[in-house]
Sequence to fold (229 residues):
Amino acid sequence: MPIGMSTAIESLDELLAEADYVSCHVPETPETKNMIGERELALMKPGSYLINASRGTVVDIEALAAALKSGHLAGAAVDVYPSEPLANGPGFESPLRGCPNMLLTPHIGGSTEEAQRMIGIEVATAITKFVNSGASINAVNFAECDLRAIPSTDLTTVRIVNVHQNVPGVLRQINNILADYNVNKQISDSKGDVAYFMADVTVDDPKDINTIYEHITAINENIITRVLF
Fold:
């Protein structure tokens, strides 16, 4: 796909035949296993370079070793292996060891001090936003929802945050409960068997907050409901 100044290529074969450097960044799936094998390496330009920073099964390392030893490829860099080493030191064996102009590194980019610091900040920020505003954007195994913040000067709007079983009819029940109030905005998303609902509701009488909460939590499919101020 085109990104920046790059252009799209119709096929992998065409890309391999034209590129001076080929860098693999794909997930491990049945379709990507040995995606770069003996045939694909032969299609690459003589003197080109291969980088695999995706998964160890994407490149046939026996074929890659042969392409390096024959001089067809000028060099390669790999940080993933079909069988990952368990620790530093002796015991790591690979056909790529000893190949000319071959760079072998561990797949630990996410384990640097800088990366770990940023991950810690990102996770803490995400948890704080979820607790304070209900936002779940970038959640891995949960529905993603977010609403713009309620202004601090707005003292009559509350945010209803509800997690429920993802079955038909639950949203209708929730909206029936909220029908007597002014719903400023709402959003819903689902992931698998669980759905997530957020709504900002104007409540003039504080007693109505408890009424809304009790009615929504009484829904059979309710998992958890929160009211945020």
User: Anything to note?
Assistant: The chain has a mean pLDDT of 92. The chain is about 30% helix and 25% strand. The helical segments are 12-18, 38-43, 61-69, 113-133, 170-178, 207-217.
